[in-house]
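Database export, one record per block. Field names are fixed; values are copied verbatim from the stored entry.
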Amino acid sequence: MARYTGPKSKIARKFGAPIFGPDQVLSKKNYPPGQHGNNRRRKTSEYGLQLREKQKAKYTYGVLERQFRNMFKKAQRSKGVTGEVLLQLLEQRLDNVVYRLGIAPTRAAARQLVTHRHVILDGRVMNIPSHFVQPGQVVGVREKSKSLEVVVDALAGFNHSKYPWLEWDESSKSGKMLHIPERADIPEEIREQLIVELYSK
C-alpha cells in the first residue's frame, strides 16, 4: 500500500509546521533543512507557493499524487467551492476520522490501526484507510482491540469536543460523524485556493 516513508522531520522543517504530529527536531531547528537553512533570500514564485501548498496538504493527510489528483477531480465535479470540498473529502477519509476521534495519536498511526483491522465502521471491520466516512456512520474500535496500548494512550485525556462534526461515545469507544465539516471546523493551515489555482493551469 503506497504511502510516504521518507524522513518526516525534514519535511516538517520544510513547511515550518508539525504536519506529522509533535516533532522535537522541529522545535529545536525551526528553519528549513539543507546547507543554507535560514539564509535563503530568493523570493518564491507564484507557482512555487502553489506547489508548496499542494505538497503540504498531501503530506498532512498522507495522500500520494494520484489519489490527491483524483480527489481534486471529484471536488471539481461536486457542488460548492472546490478548495473547501477538497479539504472536506480529505477529512472524510477513514484514517483521518480515526485520528480526529483521538483513537490514534497521528494519522500514520490511524492508518496502521485501520490496515491491521482494529477499526470498525458501522459494526463491520474496515481495513481501507482511504474509505470515505459518510454522515451518520459510526467509527469505533474492535472489542478485542480496545485494550491496545496505542489506543488507550491516545484516548487518555483527549478532548473529544474539539470537533463539532464528530460525536464521541465513551462507553462503546466509538464516534459518529454528525455532518461533513465546515471549513471553519478544519484546523489545518492550508491555503486551498492555491491548490485550486495550481490544478487549474
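Remark 1: The first strand starts at residue 119 and ends at 121.
Remark 2: The longest helix spans residues 46-61.
End of record.
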